[in-house]
Design brief:
Elements (H helix, E strand, L loop, with lengths): L4 H4 L1 H19 L3 H25 L7 H8 L7 H8 L18 E8 L2 E8 L5 H6 L7 H16 L4 E7 L6 H5 L2 H14 L4 E10 H5 L6 E5 L3 E3 L3 H9 L5 H8 L3 H6 L5 E3 L10 H19 L4 H13 L10
Helix pairs in contact: 2-3, 4-12, 7-9, 11-12
């Protein structure tokens, strides 16, 4: 069982590296016959790679644990990538007005397809320095208090809210506990329920714990096909239940963490498909899919009155978790 994304795609990466090596050698080849033979081998290898990729990413071959690893792919697009691709005039706002700043949640006004909107999202880093700067996408209380400030601004100026969810969980450190992380998340959720403007959330990677819900209590919750959404990361669940974090695969299956399960249980409203190989292989296609999905749902919501928007969101979340006992 692969324990991380690099192990999961190890064979694919080796094939890609071999193809790149052959292309490099082909560019140096001066013999026409040898060049033709080398190019034919490259084409065959690329076809083999594509077949392997299709088999590997076949929905029937991807379980909850494999989805978790794909959701954590280092090259998977993050919030700022979507903002750059989908929006114009984004102006990032900092600070929670209580003396703190959080770089794990970014936000500010922007323009989406000609409409002023408020953007809020978790942001991860791509190297050691930026991961530390972004606290691995785990927001502290000040991050959620900044989100509340931006929600209030959106309500005041009648701007729809678009949020991008990508966090393993809220920051569990002593500092966050001492400054009231639970209260901050709860206040952020409460503020989202009070909004009368349309809100659309997209789970673009990991949607973990209250840290995700803090900016995802939206009128519409969309989810990329290989994203995950759960009350706790699988390793954390395994550590609590069995005292064995290495049993993350079993925990992922028990948590029903995939987009398919989330849709089945009514936790999300729509699954946005990803290209073969995941969002990290063809980000341009994913940007187009996400843009179309957000635009379509915003169009539907903007036809409703502010009171209808608020009431529909509240009713949707109140209906979650209701079940019926069937006599044995």
């Amino acid at each position: 069982m692969p324990s991380n994304f690099n192990e999961f795609e190890k064979e694919l990466r080796e094939i890609d590296e071999f193809i790149e090596k052959m292309k490099l050698e082909a560019r140096k080849e001066t013999n026409p016959t040898a060049l033709e033979t080398g190019q034919a081998k490259i084409i065959d290898l690329e076809k083999t790679r594509d077949r392997y990729l299709e088999m590997m990413y076949d929905p029937e071959n991807l379980g909850p644990w494999e989805k978790t690893l794909i959701a954590r792919a280092p090259k998977r697009p993050y919030t700022l990538d979507y903002v750059t691709a989908l929006c114009q005039d984004f102006t990032e706002l900092q600070g929670d007005r209580n003396g703190f700043a959080d770089n794990a949640i970014i936000g500010g006004p922007a323009t989406f397809e000609g409409t002023p909107v408020m953007i809020i999202g978790h942001q991860k880093g791509r190297d050691i320095q930026s991961r530390q700067f972004r606290n691995f996408g785990m927001a502290k209380p000040e991050g959620y208090r900044k989100a509340i400030r931006l929600f209030e601004m959106a309500e005041r100026f009648k701007m729809p809210v678009i949020s991008f969810v990508d966090t393993p969980a809220a920051d569990p450190g002593v500092e966050s506990e001492s400054r009231g992380i639970s209260e901050a998340i709860a206040a952020s959720i409460m503020k989202m329920f009070a909004l009368t403007v349309p809100t659309v959330a997209v789970v673009i990677g990991e949607g973990g714990s209250g840290g995700a819900i803090g900016i995802a209590a939206s009128s519409r919750v969309l989810m990329l096909e290989h994203s995950v959404y759960s009350v706790i990361p699988p390793e954390g669940c395994a550590a609590i239940l069995w005292r064995k974090p290495e049993m993350g695969k079993q925990a992922a299956e028990a948590l029903k963490i995939s987009s398919r399960s989330a849709l089945e249980y009514g936790i999300i409203d729509e699954i946005l498909p990803e290209p073969v190989g995941g969002a990290h292989r063809k980000p341009i296609e994913v940007y187009a899919t996400v843009k179309e999905g957000i635009g379509r749902h915003l169009d539907e919501l903007q036809k409703m009155t502010p009171e209808q928007v608020k009431a529909e969101r509240f009713s949707k979340f109140r209906a979650m978790g209701i079940f019926e006992e069937v006599p044995a």
